[in-house]
Design brief:
globular; 0% strand; 119 residues; mainly alpha
Length: 119
């Protein structure tokens, strides 16, 4: 799953210089359920199935990264992805799950996948 994060950053065109510190994970916008940002976080959470890459053993993570690049509509959702990019494992899953809950989602499939070790 670390590869997804790296690919997302590359595909979305966001870069950090070597001396830059990662931005702290924080809520980037106040988002009401149903807002464009909330819909983007929902799309992020469901990106594994929506991109067509439902089986982690099948297909590259580039499939998800390309799908997200084409389907996320708000700059705030892209900023959020950049914010969580340096995190790994439980920390990354918790950050995404927390943001999903903040925008009114009951759960987040991608966060659950990030918690599951890759075979």
């Amino acid at each position: 799953m670390k590869t997804i994060a790296c690919l997302l950053v590359a595909v979305l065109g966001c870069q950090r210089g070597d001396g830059d510190k990662p931005a702290p994970v924080a809520s980037v916008v106040a988002a009401a359920p149903g807002s464009p940002y909330a819909k983007d976080i929902e799309a992020l959470c469901e990106s594994v199935t929506r991109s067509g890459r439902q089986d982690r053993a099948r297909g590259p993570t580039l499939t998800i990264a390309n799908w997200l690049a084409a389907n996320l509509t708000t700059p705030e959702s892209r900023k959020f992805l950049v914010q969580i990019q340096p995190l790994v494992g439980e920390a990354k899953a918790a950050a995404l799950e927390s943001e999903a809950k903040r925008v009114g989602l009951a759960g987040c499939a991608l966060a659950a996948e990030w918690r599951t070790p890759t075979p």
